[in-house]
Specification:
This protein has a single domain, classed as Beta-Lactamase (2-Layer Sandwich). The chain has 6 helices and 6 strands. The chain is globular.
């Protein structure tokens, strides 16, 4: 069940408010919402992302970086520590946020990709299945 502050913000259509409520609910320090536009992900809302990083992540190709991989695979991408990740999933822009524990989920409606919702913590963090499921439900609600 989606917490009421997030549901209220989602119902209003205010992506910045919905993202702020989501970041707060998960005890995160940063977050992004990218929407699919013309075959790429375009930054639609962000919270606590440094200005130089905003420039880097304004447009994200499908398959590139954490958000791009979540979009391409249509499944959650989790990274316990962005700063020490050697998988190649975390791009330099993600590392430049200073965040560590990251979770990005696709925003899907009926299997159709609409965007990607991502949150991050300042410390290393292993996301639980319940947290991943809830963020996925929030992403679906925002995509609607």
């Amino acid at each position: 069940m989606i917490p009421s502050p997030i549901e209220t913000a989602a119902a209003s259509g205010d992506l910045n408010a919905a993202l702020a409520a989501t970041v707060t609910h998960f005890g995160c320090q940063a977050g992004t919402i990218h929407l699919l536009r013309d075959g790429v992900l375009k930054l639609a809302a962000h919270r606590n992302i440094p200005p130089p990083v905003v420039q880097i992540i304004e447009t994200v190709p499908i398959g590139k970086g954490i958000a791009g991989l979540a979009a391409e695979r249509r499944e959650p991408i989790t990274i316990c520590n962005l700063q020490t990740d050697t998988s190649g999933q975390a791009r330099p822009g993600a590392k430049a946020t200073g965040m560590e524990g990251s979770l990005a989920v696709p925003m899907l409606v009926g299997g159709e990709l609409r965007g990607v919702l991502g949150v991050a913590k300042a410390e290393a963090y292993d996301w639980s299945e319940a947290e991943t499921t809830l963020l996925t439900q929030i992403a679906t609600r925002l995509a609607e």
